[in-house]
Specification:
This protein is mainly alpha-helical. It has a domain of 92 residues. The protein contains 14 helices and no strands.
């Protein structure tokens, strides 16, 4: 029997360590490259991802209408036109109040500063002293000329970015039309591309479950957020907030962003309340109502309707929202959770990704016999 020398064992250990380091380095470089591609190609990838997610929601509708004798192309065209009309109607109806609020933003900022001045008098004293010192310094050197560069206002920046936003919406809707009109073409190509019969079954099962679970999740959350928006709009109307429809729509959209959306809504409503009411006590009523409604939705309604099957790890959800919001802005934060659902479903069916699936789950759940067979 041959004996392994100590030098050979030590060399083997060093080689194994080098191999592991190389693997980790390759994975790290790959992830960095993926992040760079996602960031620099966001103008293309964002509308494409959004179109695929909307297609997951509307594909069951197109398939149902096809069984009733309506061609896929016709039903896809009608759905996309309805979606376009809804976006246009919402944008037109809210353009007036939003433009007015943006135009009045400097005046509102001064009003807010005036109303909370009693809460920060010590800070104001320091600021006033520093202003006096600065004024004395300026009076000593009155010959110095100053050049002030005026930054573009919010309306100017919005007008500049409007063509880009319209182009992204157009790309999303056109791609969505083609995806819906193609019907089951994706599943047919998937079956043909996979080598073995078991792989074909698994691929179709994953694709069908992703479509079913994501469409169910998005439709349920959209209905919940619509109900929340209606409740917030009615509550803001009752307490006398201006433009209650605007706050209802804002609450519905922001609630697609877990955790951060509700916080942003509370802060914005509190700021508007300070402008709209005479006393601090009255101004606190709208944000408290908003916080109560979002808390009720997050702690009772959503867990009850969404169910435990799609409950996600709160840490993973927060990281995903922060990451996609950093990459793609508010739209990235909105689609972060649906994309996380897709990753979890894919990890449930692929060998070697069980640890990722368990991390994304809210808690340990009993095994699914169908998934064990795969």
């Amino acid at each position: 029997m041959s004996k392994v020398l100590p030098e050979q064992g030590e060399a083997g250990g060093h080689q194994s360590l080098l191999d592991q380091t190389a693997k980790v380095s390759v994975i790290g470089i790959f992830l960095i490259l993926i992040g760079g591609v996602l960031f620099f190609a966001k103008d293309f990838l964002l509308p494409v991802s959004l179109a695929f997610l909307i297609a997951l929601v509307l594909s069951p509708v197109v398939r149902y209408l096809r069984r009733r004798g309506i061609p896929e192309g016709l039903s896809a065209l009608v759905l996309v036109l309805c979606l376009f009309a809804g976006i246009g109607a919402a944008a037109y109806g809210l353009s007036g109040p939003v433009a007015q609020w943006v135009a009045d933003a400097p005046k509102h900022a001064r009003e807010i500063q005036y109303k909370i001045s009693s809460l920060r008098r010590p800070v104001e004293a320091v600021v006033e002293a520093s202003k006096r010192v600065e004024a004395l310094a300026e009076s000593d050197d009155s010959s110095t000329q100053k050049v002030v560069l005026a930054e573009p206002g919010l309306i100017a920046r919005a007008a500049t970015g409007a063509p880009e936003a319209v182009a992204k919406i157009g790309l999303t809707l056109v791609l969505l039309l083609f995806l819906l009109a193609s019907g089951d073409l994706f599943y047919e190509k998937l079956v043909k591309s996979l080598p073995t019969f078991s792989d074909k079954r698994r691929g179709v099962r994953i694709a069908r479950e992703v479509e079913r679970e994501v469409s169910r999740y998005l439709l349920t959350v959209a209905c919940i957020n619509a109900g929340l928006g209606i409740a917030v709009g009615i509550a803001m109307y009752v307490v006398g907030m201006p433009n209650p429809a605007l706050w209802g729509l804002t609450a519905a959209v922001l609630n697609f962003v877990p955790y951060l959306g509700a916080l942003i809504g509370i802060v914005v409503v509190a700021a508007v309340g300070l402008v709209s009411y005479d006393t601090l006590g009255q101004a606190l009523v709208p944000p408290l109502i908003y916080a109560a409604l979002t808390t009720l939705e997050g702690q009772l309604v959503t867990p009850l309707l969404v169910g435990r099957r799609l409950e996600m790890n709160a840490v993973a959800v927060f990281i995903a929202v922060a990451f996609w919001g950093w990459l793609w802005g508010i739209v990235g934060a909105i689609i972060a959770v649906p994309m996380l659902v897709v990753v979890r479903i894919f990890a449930d069916h692929v060998e070697g990704l069980g640890a990722l699936s368990q991390f994304l789950a809210a808690r340990d759940t009993p095994a699914d016999p169908e998934k064990e067979d795969t």
